[in-house]
Amino acid sequence: MTDPHPRDDRTIGRAVGGIVVLGSANFIAITTEILPVGLLPQLAGGVGVSESTAGLLVTVYAFVVAAAAVPLTLATRGVPRKPLLMGALATYAVSNVLVATAPSFALLAVGRVLGGLAHAIFFSISIAYASRLVAPRFAGRALSLVTAGATLGFVLGVPLSTSLGTAVGWRWSFAVLAAWCAATVVLVAALLPPVTVERRPRRDRDDSRRGRARLGVVVTTNGLLFCGQYTAYTYISVILLASGVSEGAVGPVLLVFGALGLIGLWAAARFLDRSPRALILGVTGTIAAALVALALAIPSTAGVVVAAGVWLAAFGAIPSTFQVAALRAAGGSADVAGAFVNATANFGIGSGAALGAVVVAGAGYVAVAFTAAGIVGVGLLVILASRRAFPSRPEL
Question: What angle do CA 348, 351, 354 make, to 5 degrees?
Answer without folding.
Answer: 145
